[in-house]
Design goal:
heterodimer; A: seven-stranded mixed beta sheet; 20 strands; 29% helix; 23% strand; B: mainly alpha; 12 helices
Chain lengths: 529, 322
């Protein structure tokens, strides 16, 4: 009997102790900063967004290199330039000049880190050196590799630095302006930034200080930095709070912005207090053909027949519930600034497809992921192709396995879906279609056709990068799209749009940049403008 | 001693499997690039950068070399660096472990006494026994995540005071520790009830069978014939003599409970090891998968060892008392 009592006592003790232990989970709490003086119009005390996922500590070394992780880091850290709806704008840099290979940036007066230390050109130089010495930091300089775009730098004075690049091209200014500046006085003595959690590990140069980060619960709090040199924050605090169902949490007023499924969109659109941000055609699906395993499809007549066989509007209607559009055969979505209306359109024509494909006795395996809409789309493709006379076996795997098989070329047909199609085409078109740059791995936008080469496409895809004039570059892109739509290196299935919904009376500053459609992940969304 | 050696050998086999099986899965932790809109990759590592990453995590070495290095590091108490979370594996696990253990303890504290109490009642009341037995037979094989989902949508979504998810109210400021404890208990309630629903039948069946077997023993007749009160008979004779299988069941259930907890945590976005394991598998974070399974293995084997020792002790105690 005493043992039973002991057991009960142990359980009674374990429960509160274990629950209390939850309180000791690793967390970071910094002293609060804040704007508590008079507030301008549009300012809100706190913005609450969906959290609950640990996207890593918000510093350049430890954040996860996906949208939500990078976005949180970019709240805390600032770069020389920022992107708005139309192009690059000054951020830590108030001005910049370009001359040959030299890009000279002048920092804003009063630029400072969140611990009060001034941010100088030496910090910019140190950041480049440090990134070079501790690769691979997720940065657009390719620091620490042969491909690093910066050849050397010259610190002109406390506020001015000249970065000399190896080969200037159309992306150089954006890339030089996009790496986050870290404080020299914190990191100069840190040997392994990937494990460092000591003093200053989250001291940034941005408009928001990380005042709370709790990995296990996926909670983040960012507090506005007073006197940030590049603008005025639109909220006193930004909090990412754990929720299980974001829409339910939005309706309960627990969060101020959320995604809304296409089916429910019309139900909410009648409410005038709600605002919406459309992420037009941001998710896209393409059908890759491994021409090494399916050499028959090197015949362009067969690829045209595949387009004709596929009822791609059915994908939009049945799978995306109408929220999206049939993909342009030139790859760039129809809503993009770069989209070419001259691309060849391939209509659904099952009879024409059958006329070409039926007597070929073709049989293919279609690789797909087992998540999201992939299996549904794969099944629709199978139905259409089989109706045209091509036997299709769908093989679905988890996304990581699918990615691995695609990267290894271990497929015949592969359905690949990913977000980011609504981003800036210069960031992805070359790495999919240029025979020099495609299939480098590590990103879905580098998964191009295998066993297919096209010198003309490669030439245009590489040439656009060297063009620094926007209109001239856009013209090359449009020519490239037309060529892609004619040559069909891959089949573009459809693009899916998604929507964010927010309460206008709480905060109305959400925006999209010319290069990125996720309003919640653009730091300008959190600034008064 | 023999039992300890057997457990040690089991541990060694599981350790080797934990190392090799995740690495034999298709997929690559550094080339997992699938995304949905909003979670896109924000960087495209070039080939040289991928090699740098492989070297940093030791993935550029042959598998046997990796195993040797991992073993040596583990023996030093270093579980390695999580590729996905970019933190030491021990930090990731230890920061989530209290949540998982707390939830397991909470659900056990609910289910075990309830199961034992119900079993005691059922052995005395055949009608109640018939009903409870039937219900528990029906629910004993329910998957815990299904119970969790049902509770989430049928209960939490309709009741204001029950949180939908998470382990505690984010950014709350508590007046005192008791208030925080209450908040933690409230957040843990539905996950714990989900676990309780699926673990309750197991404890109940064990306790019931044990009580029924003890009930037929002649010493009970002797005790009652000596005029001992029924409460004393139940506590001193029935509970004590039936305790061994129940305690054994408690410790042997640790593995199953752990598995159920990992699933239920995902339903309620509860910040435990379960959510970490899901992400680790999804992103092929080998060191983290290995760390979580290592911890689970140790917990299950320790539970088995504790079960052996406690049962032996209880049996000895009962014999002495007898």
């Amino acid at each position: 009997m005493p043992r039973i009592r002991i057991l009960s006592a142990v359980l009674a003790l374990v429960l509160p102790v274990s629950l209390a232990a939850g309180c000791s989970a690793a967390s970071y709490e910094a002293p609060a900063y804040g704007a508590d003086s008079a507030h301008p119009d549009g300012w809100v005390e706190a913005l609450r967004l969906e959290g609950g996922t640990d996207w890593g500590a918000p510093n350049p070394f430890q954040c996860q290199s996906r949208g939500p992780g990078t976005a949180k880091m970019e709240l805390v850290y600032a770069s020389l330039l920022e992107k708005d709806e139309n192009g690059d704008i000054g951020w830590l840099a108030e001005s910049w000049t370009m001359e040959g290979n030299d890009y000279t940036f002048t920092l804003r007066e009063g630029a400072a880190f969140q611990d009060g230390q001034p941010l100088t050109a030496d910090d910019v130089a140190f950041t480049i050196d440090y990134y070079n010495a501790h690769p691979p930091v997720s940065n657009p300089l390719a620091a620490g590799t042969e491909a690093c775009i910066v050849d050397h730098y010259t610190v002109v004075d406390e506020r001015t630095i000249t970065l000399t690049v190896k080969n200037p091209d159309g992306d150089t200014l954006s890339n030089l302006g996009s790496f986050e500046i870290i404080p020299r006085h914190v990191w100069k003595s840190v040997e392994d930034p990937y494990t460092y959690t000591g003093e200053g590990w989250l001291t940034g140069s941005g408009a928001w200080a990380c005042t709370a980060y709790d990995g296990p619960t996926g909670s983040y709090e960012f507090t506005a930095v007073e006197d940030f040199c590049a603008g005025t924050p639109g909220a006193g605090r930004i909090q990412f709070v754990p929720v299980s169902d974001a829409l339910l949490a939005f309706e309960n007023g627990e969060i101020d912005i959320t995604g809304v499924p296409a089916d429910l969109l019309s139900q909410y659109q009648a409410d005038e207090t709600l605002g919406f941000v459309e992420k037009a055609n941001d998710m896209g699906y393409k059908l890759l053909i491994n021409f090494e395993q399916c050499p028959e499809f090197l015949d362009i007549a067969l690829r045209r027949a595949v387009y004709a066989a596929l009822d791609r509007q059915a994908v939009v209607d049945k799978v995306f519930r109408g929220a999206g559009s049939v993909g342009s055969a030139g790859y760039v979505p129809r809503t993009s600034l770069y989209y070419s209306p001259d691309c060849v359109e391939y209509d659904y024509d099952p009879d024409a497809a059958r006329a070409v494909l039926a007597d070929k006795n073709l049989s293919v395996t279609l690789l797909a992921a087992d998540s999201g809409s992939d299996v549904s789309i794969a099944e629709l493709i199978k139905i259409d192709l089989e109706a045209a006379g091509v036997a299709v076996t769908v093989e679905s795997y988890d996304s990581a396995t699918r990615d691995s098989m695609v990267n290894a070329g271990d497929y015949q047909f592969a359905l690949v879906g990913n977000g980011g199609w609504g981003n800036n085409p210069p960031t992805y078109l070359r790495t999919i279609f240029s025979d020099i740059s495609k299939n480098q791995g590590g990103n879905p936008h580098s998964m191009g056709p295998i066993g297919y080469e096209n010198a003309q496409i490669t030439e245009l895809a590489e040439a656009q990068k060297l063009e620094t004039d926007f209109e001239a570059r856009k013209a090359i892109f449009q020519e490239l799209q037309v060529l892609i739509s004619q040559e069909i290196p891959l089949i573009v299935i459809a693009n899916q749009s998604s929507y964010s919904m927010y309460r206008k009376d709480v905060y109305d500053g959400w925006m999209k940049t010319y290069a990125y459609q996720q309003a919640e992940q653009n730091r300008l969304s959190y600034m008064l403008r | 001693m023999r039992r300890a050696a057997l457990l040690l050998a089991t541990f060694a086999v599981i350790y080797v499997c934990n190392f090799f099986i995740p690495r034999l899965m298709p997929g690559d932790p550094l080339q997992y690039s699938s995304s949905v809109s909003g979670e896109d990759m924000t960087v495209a590592y070039n080939a040289e950068q991928l090699e740098q990453l492989r070297a940093y995590y030791g993935l550029d070495q042959p598998l046997l070399t990796q195993f040797g290095r991992t073993l040596a590091a583990n023996l030093r108490g270093d579980l390695g660096q999580s590729i996905h979370y970019k933190q030491p594996v021990s930090t990731v696990i230890l920061s989530r472990l209290p949540w998982t253990l707390g939830l397991m303890a909470f659900s056990t504290a609910l289910s075990l006494p309830l199961a034992v109490g119900l079993a005691l009642l059922c052995v005395r009341r055949p009608r109640v026994d018939k009903a409870v037995y039937g219900v528990f037979s029906a629910i004993c094989q329910l998957p815990p995540y299904l119970v969790g989902l049902a509770l989430l949508f049928l209960v939490a979504a309709r009741v204001d005071w029950l949180p939908l998810s998470g382990g505690e109210t984010a950014f709350a400021r508590y007046a005192h520790f008791g208030q925080r404890l209450a908040d933690l208990a409230l957040h843990g309630l539905l996950p714990a009830v989900s676990l309780c629903v699926v673990s309750l039948p197991g404890y109940f069946f064990t306790a019931r069978a044990s009580f029924l077997s003890v009930r037929r023993q002649p010493y009970l007749l002797g005790a009652r014939s000596r005029g001992l009160k029924e409460g004393l008979v139940r506590r001193r004779y029935i509970l004590r003599n039936a305790a061994t299988p129940i305690v054994a069941k408690l410790f042997l259930s640790i593995g199953g409970l752990m598995g159920s907890t990992l699933l239920v945590e995902n339903v309620f976005a509860y910040p435990g090891v379960g959510t970490v394991l899901r992400e680790a598998v999804r992103y092929r974070d080998y060191p983290l998968i290995q760390g979580v399974f290592l911890f689970s293995t140790v917990l299950v084997l320790a539970g088995m060892l504790a079960s052996d020792r406690l049962c032996a002790g209880l049996d000895k105690g009962v014999r002495h008392a007898g």
